[in-house]
From TrEMBL, chain A:
It is a multi-pass membrane protein. This is Cytochrome (Ubi)quinol oxidase subunit III. PROSITE patterns: COX3 (PS50253). Its main location: membrane. It is found in: Cell membrane. One of its GO terms (molecular function) is cytochrome-c oxidase activity.
From TrEMBL, chain B:
The gene is ctaD. Residues 10-522 form the Cytochrome oxidase subunit I profile domain. This is Cytochrome c oxidase subunit 1. GO terms for cellular component: plasma membrane. The lineage of its organism: Bacteria, Bacillati, Bacillota, Bacilli, Bacillales. It is an enzyme of class 7 (translocase). Its main location: membrane.
Length: 207, 622
């Protein structure tokens, strides 16, 4: 396939993200990468569960967590996953501008989530003096949730960079796989959050 | 090569070429040189340990330096010598064995190498900045969390960076093997070396993230005041042991499986027979990979997990001996009735069988949890894992290098010198490590810097040290052989061993696009199938046409350099927060390079048909 066919395809195939060998490789490689990420988060969850009771005093999960904020965060992130699905739907229909629009909405929702998380951490630190260093539980909590937050931040920067870079030229066989795997990453982050919501917040409050 | 650099010539252009290369064959060479260098460093460290233990109450090394020496020896050998040398073979061979023109992600291939390189360098800088890590290669807390100075910080940052490189390499090989196989190269026609690379890469993918997390926790505890392993604040030191061994046991199979694959190819070639029990071999490889994840706690029998957990892990561990046994027998049956050629590669391979079997046997002994209370942390364990690691991994590397050297460099390593290197190494190996089992059973603990006189340990330790010197002599002869071969040996053709697999169907060393036309694979041992049909080489599966190749790039080097700089920043920001500048600069370089990579189009280039035709006239590409 010549470079021109990749950058300015005369006809877009139905699955532009998998139309080239590079695209296929990216697609598969990224799934493998997510497999590794799963082990990474599994290790962090394991550590968290092992240190769950090691609060060294007042700042226990029941005492700290407020489910209202966490509920809003969950809604923001779940919705952003849905909007990124819309974006991919428009990619498959070769409607570039709609795809970009839904991705912008995704980013905004993600930013909302991140804002809430920063607020939450600040709240714990200033109101409760519950920090990364105050107990093994504190270390485990901020590490697990913070790793997830770091992933959100990275995903947001990545998607934003793609949106800006390609705004002028539109969809082609070179950038379609990039968009696609960025959206896979975003779903993965969402799934991890569902587990954090359950294991950290729900079980912390009720369990 | 149509990158600008290759058209220039001279020394600097060559350096630039290697810094920016994404060609799997050149990356293989980089892994070989760097891994070889670290193998020598780890070897010198081993010699210093053995000199210290040559006689009772010795004071050749101080206690502290001794601890640094054993830690750096183990860490260097596993992460900086064995792994990269294995990657050297994988990079040199796997794309050729499946009929591919490169790996799936050439850019990431280069990134993987440079991350490993800078991680390794960072780790070793510690020698010059006030002391190397000294908490053992296992780095157990709280020994590691309370170790003074910055040694352990170097361990954490060095392994984190090089570990990221390994993970990337693993993903790369997985995708390469799934997506890049030539037409007709079904899974059940892949050579065993490719199969074992595939399984190994899966192990890397699922094992390394556990180490990544362990290292992060260790980093946070040591550098940012968290309390994961601080019992006073509710921490739990056993978490480290679990994370380390969830990575660590699969790691021993990551090391040995590729060489199992290499041995399989070697036995089959030099017995002039197809591998006995091919599908059983594939099955055993996959099963070992799977079981490798179920046994990590056999390193923790004495921690106090309780009889139930100990029993489960003991039985699971013993189960691994079954697929391993399948392999041993299949290798023997491959040789049975074959036309055996005792080349140097074959010599190392044949020697591997009894040596490794002894290591497997002591492994089953160790797996008996109740007995392990006696063996644990004694020289018996040191004997065990050196029988599998040296008798398996090191022998395999020597065998694999002898076997594939002509493919990599176009010359056969001198056979006489090859055999001359083998004998002192082989004898020295058994001399060094066999006696250590008995030293361990007599009660000599591992990781002690002296042993006392009058406890019956003197002779055994002296023998062990003499053996180590013999191994050093063997290694030096091997090095001499490399130099000798480079200057004195004649060039050989593409197929010097009368090979069976695809890599032998193309010239040595291969042109940088490997196959001018992608071959059509018609069976197991594809080249042999064609030879039996009276053909000279492979039948192409496509007409001659333009070939698409990736572009070189300096970005992988820059990304890794950024991590290297940031590594220093992380280590020293505890002393003074102005070091945070190094963190920002380093991460800035890395993230900036990543952004450049993401935003700047890189579509590769084409090699034109006319150019290929010219090459073929000169004898290449077939
Ligand atoms: C295949 C290659 C193998 C390698 C590279 C390998 C490597 C190692 C290493 C490095 C250790 C030392 C851990 C430490 O620092 O204490 C070890 C210990 C152990 N190995 Fe292996 N091993 C291999 C095969 C086996 C097999 C086949 C078995 C059993 C069937 C086995 C069972 C054990 C056990 C139970 C221990 C724990 C000993 C203790 O800490 O007391 N290993 N192995
Ligand atoms: Cu093990």
């Amino acid at each position: 396939m010549s470079h021109d066919d990749v950058l300015n395809p005369k006809q877009m195939p139905h699955d532009p993200e998998k139309a080239t060998l590079e695209g296929k490789n990216k697609f598969l490689g990224f799934w493998f990468f997510l497999g590794g990420e799963t082990v990474l988060f599994a290790s962090l969850f394991g550590t968290y569960l092992a240190l769950n009771g090691s609060t060294q005093g007042e700042n226990t999960p029941e005492h700290l967590f407020g489910l209202e904020l966490v509920f809003i965060m969950t809604m923001l992130l779940l919705t952003s996953s849905l909007t990124s699905v819309y974006a991919m739907y428009h990619m498959k229909n070769h409607n570039f501008q709609k795809m970009q629009l839904w991705l912008v909405i995704t980013v905004l929702l993600g930013l909302g989530f991140l804002g809430c998380e920063i607020y939450e951490f600040m709240h714990y630190i200033h109101e409760y003096e519950f920090t990364f260093r105050s107990s093994a539980f504190g270390s485990a909590f901020y590490t697990l949730v913070g790793f997830h937050g770091g992933h959100v931040l990275f995903g947001l920067s990545w998607i934003t960079a793609l949106i800006i870079r390609n705004q002028k030229r539109g969809l082609n066989l070179y950038n379609a796989p990039k968009y696609y795997i960025a959206s896979l990453y975003w779903h993965f982050i969402d799934v991890v959050w569902v587990f954090i919501f359950t294991v950290v917040y729900l079980m912390g409050k009720v369990g | 090569m149509s990158t600008a650099a290759a058209q220039k010539s001279g020394f600097l252009a060559t350096i630039w070429d290697y810094l920016t290369t994404v060609d799997h064959k050149k990356i293989a060479q980089l892994y070989l040189y760097t891994g070889g260098f670290f193998f020598l460093v780890g070897g010198v460290e081993a010699m210093l340990i053995r000199i210290q233990l040559m006689k009772p109450d010795n004071d050749f090394l101080s206690a502290g330096l001794y601890n640094e020496m054993i830690t750096m020896h183990g860490t260097t050998m596993i992460f900086l010598a064995a792994m990269p040398l294995i990657f050297a073979l994988m990079n040199a061979v796997v794309p050729l064995q499946i009929g591919a023109r490169d790996v799936a992600f050439p850019f990431l291939n280069s990134l993987g190498f440079w991350l490993f390189f800078f991680g390794g360098v960072l780790l070793n800088v510690s020698w010059f900045t006030g002391g190397a890590p000294d908490a053992g290669w296992t780095n157990y807390a709280p020994l590691s969390t309370t170790s003074p100075g910055h040694g352990v910080d170097y361990y954490v940052m060095g392994l984190q960076i090089s570990g990221a490189g390994t993970l990337i390499a693993g993903i790369n090989f997985l995708v390469t093997i799934v997506n890049m196989r030539a037409p007709g190269m079904t899974y059940m026609r892949m050579p065993l070396f490719t199969w074992s690379t595939f399984v190994t890469s899966a192990l890397i993918l699922f094992a390394f993230p556990a180490l990544t997390v362990g290292l992060f926790l260790m980093m946070f505890d040591r550098m940012f005041g968290s309390a994961f392993f601080d019992v006073a604040l509710g921490g739990n030191v056993i978490i480290w042991e679990h994370l380390f061994w969830i990575f660590g046991h699969p790691e021993v199979y990551i090391l040995i499986l590729p060489l199992f694959g290499a041995f399989s190819d070697i036995f089959s070639t030099f017995s002039k027979k197809r591998l006995f029990g091919y599908s059983a071999m594939v099955f055993a490889t996959v099963l070992i990979g799977f079981l490798g994840f179920m046994v990590w706690a056999h390193h923790m029998f004495t921690v106090g997990m309780g009889p139930i957990a100990n029993s489960i892990f003991a039985v699971a561990t013993m189960a691994i001996a079954v697929p391993t046994g399948i392999k041993i027998f299949n290798w023997l049956f491959t040789m049975w009735g074959g036309q055996i050629r005792m080349t140097a590669a074959m010599l190392w391979s044949v020697a591997f069988i009894p040596s490794f079997t002894i290591g497997g046997m002591t492994g089953v002994m160790l797996a008996a949890a109740a007995a392990d209370y006696q063996y644990h942390d004694t020289y018996f364990v040191v004997g065990h894992f050196h029988y599998v690691i040296v008798g398996g991994v090191a022998f395999g590397l020597f065998a694999g290098l002898h076997y594939w050297w002509p493919k990599m460099f176009g010359k056969i390593l001198n056979e006489k010198l090859g055999k001359l290197a083998f004998w002192p190494f082989f004898i020295g190996f058994h001399l060094t490590f066999f006696i250590q089992h008995f030293l361990g059973l007599m009660g000599m603990p591992r990781r002690y810097w002296v042993f006392l006189d009058g406890q019956g340990l003197n002779t055994g330790n002296l023998i062990s040290t003499i053996g180590a010197f013999l191994m050093a002599i063997g290694t030096i002869i091997f090095l001499i052989n490399i130099v000798y071969t480079a200057f004195k040996e004649p060039k050989v053709g593409g197929d010097p061993w009368n090979g069976r697999t695809l890599e032998w169907a193309i010239p040595s060393p291969p042109p940088h696009y490997n196959f001018a036309q992608t071959p059509l694979v018609r069976g197991l041992d594809p080249l042999w199938v064609e030879k039996m049909d009276g053909k000279k080489g492979m039948t192409p599966s496509e007409p001659l046409g333009d070939i698409h190749m990736p572009n070189g790039s300096i970005l992988p080097f820059m990304m890794s350099l950024g991590m290297f700089i940031a590594g220093f920043g992380f280590i020293y920001q505890i002393d003074s927060s102005s070091w945070l500048i190094a963190v920002f600069i380093g991460m800035g370089i890395t993230l900036g390079s990543m952004l450049t990579r993401s935003l700047k189009d890189d579509l590769g280039h084409h090699i034109h048909k006319e150019e290929l035709e010219r090459d073929i006239k000169k004898g290449a590409g077939k």
